[in-house]
């Protein structure tokens, strides 16, 4: 908070309790907050906008031909952005190339973290078909998220048994920006949060989801990965409550664009009980990203029709095969000649000819620069999901080394036994 801020500290969201070893840890109050949320005119307006924008997004996705073909790209984008909030450098291109086994020494080493996020998202969505969101499922997702990646030595799939804290490099428990509740309180707090998730109250669902995310981040129940798991919960809850039929909201785009405000609003809850400021920020993010994702869906439809027409007009008797390849590229936007041959059941020479004709039409482009073992990307489609300000071109990120280290500390918590 700025030094001249006159806002009074409040125990509405919880209080800091001094521990035996001298540091103070935050003990959150159970949800919903008391007194209840103040619904002023701005809150009503933001809630209405968010509801309408989400409904428009869900409707636009349903108009896509075979929506499941396109959902994975939305998931990949959310995975990239959520991971970048925690300091990863991998872009959407890096993820697509690694998935397609395009080996490049220049790929960031942390691309595995983003791949894990995608796996965790898909696993969780599949499990939600038969298992309600629960602490058990949250642990399973956490284990996938940290598998063979940063944090793999921090008890993947287990709630913490030691104290953690958040702050700049070199800080201690006494100088940390925030100290979550002690480990012996974690299970009780999580149990209360789980009960709130399933309580049939009258809180508008978007506001409730925002509260759940904030409370989870405050409890900080894992030794690493809390931010990413907390953002996964937003998608899981939206889908479980059937607000979205498909997981196409990349809310981390808004959180990343407003990263400082994101953390500041969460901290204001703890220090000042300011649930209203956080909720308005969250609703603004839902509305903003919903509109962006809806526009992406509109552009997908336009691009698909443009390229289907182009293939039909230019490829003659090969048009059917060209359309088959194009449909495959919506789920996996990188392909090589061998895969084309296998998919269509044609000779390598015929597949090579077809791929070249698609390249000549600027539908796909070669991305390795090789004369042999060439790999092609459906760049016009990938570009619809690439944020040129943040993830597609690393040179545009322009982070200093100190800023990068600070980002990592938001999720790479310090640990005290």
From TrEMBL:
GO terms for molecular function: ATP binding. Pfam families: Fic, Fic_N. PROSITE patterns: FIDO. Residues 393-417 are annotated as: Disordered. Keywords: ATP-binding, Nucleotide-binding. Gene3D superfamilies: Fido-like domain. The keyword Nucleotide-binding applies. ATP binds at residues 86, 220, 224-231, 262-263. The active site is at 220. Residues 133-284 form the Fido domain. Residues 393-411 have a biased composition (Basic and acidic residues). InterPro entries: Fic/DOC_N, Fido, Fido-like_dom_sf, Fido_containing, SoFic-like. This is Fic family protein. It comes from Methylobacterium oryzihabitans.
């Amino acid at each position: 908070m700025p030094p001249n801020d006159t806002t009074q500290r409040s125990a509405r969201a919880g209080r800091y309790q001094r521990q035996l070893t001298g540091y103070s840890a935050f003990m959150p109050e159970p949800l919903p907050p008391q007194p209840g949320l103040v619904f002023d005119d701005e809150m009503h307006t933001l809630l209405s906008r968010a509801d309408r924008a989400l409904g428009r997004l869900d409707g636009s996705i349903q108009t896509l031909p075979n929506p499941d073909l396109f959902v994975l790209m939305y998931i990949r984008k959310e995975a990239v952005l959520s991971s970048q909030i925690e300091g990863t450098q991998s872009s959407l291109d890096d993820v697509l190339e690694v998935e397609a086994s395009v080996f490049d020494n220049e790929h960031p080493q942390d691309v595995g973290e983003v791949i894990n996020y995608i796996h965790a998202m898909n696993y969780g969505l599949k499990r939600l078909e038969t298992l309600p969101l629960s602490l058990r499922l949250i642990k399973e997702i956490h284990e996938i998220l940290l598998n063979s990646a940063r944090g793999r030595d921090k008890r993947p799939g287990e709630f913490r048994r030691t104290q953690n804290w958040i702050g700049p490099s070199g800080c201690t428990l006494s100088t940390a920006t925030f100290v979550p509740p002690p480990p012996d309180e974690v299970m009780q707090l999580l149990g209360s949060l789980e009960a709130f998730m399933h309580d049939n109250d009258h809180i508008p669902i978007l506001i409730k989801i925002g509260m759940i995310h904030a409370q989870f981040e405050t409890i900080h129940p894992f030794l690493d990965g809390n931010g990413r798991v907390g953002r996964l919960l937003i998608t899981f809850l939206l889908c479980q409550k059937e607000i979205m039929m498909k997981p196409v909201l990349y809310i981390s785009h808004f959180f990343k664009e407003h990263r400082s405000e994101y953390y500041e609003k969460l901290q204001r809850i703890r220090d000042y009980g300011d649930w209203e400021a956080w909720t308005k920020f969250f609703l603004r993010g839902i509305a903003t990203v919903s509109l962006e994702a809806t526009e992406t869906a509109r552009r997908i439809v336009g691009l698909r029709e443009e390229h289907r027409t182009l293939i039909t007009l230019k490829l003659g008797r090969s048009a059917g095969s060209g359309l088959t390849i194009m449909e495959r590229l919506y789920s996996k936007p990188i392909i090589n000649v061998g895969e084309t041959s296998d998919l269509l059941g044609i000779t390598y020479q015929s597949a090579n000819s077809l791929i070249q004709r698609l390249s000549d039409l600027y539908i796909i482009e070669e991305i390795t620069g090789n004369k042999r073992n060439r790999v092609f990307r459906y760049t016009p489609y990938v570009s619809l999901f690439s944020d040129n300000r943040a993830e597609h071109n690393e040179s545009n990120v322009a982070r200093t080394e100190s800023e990068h280290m600070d980002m990592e500390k938001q999720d790479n918590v310090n640990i005290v036994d």
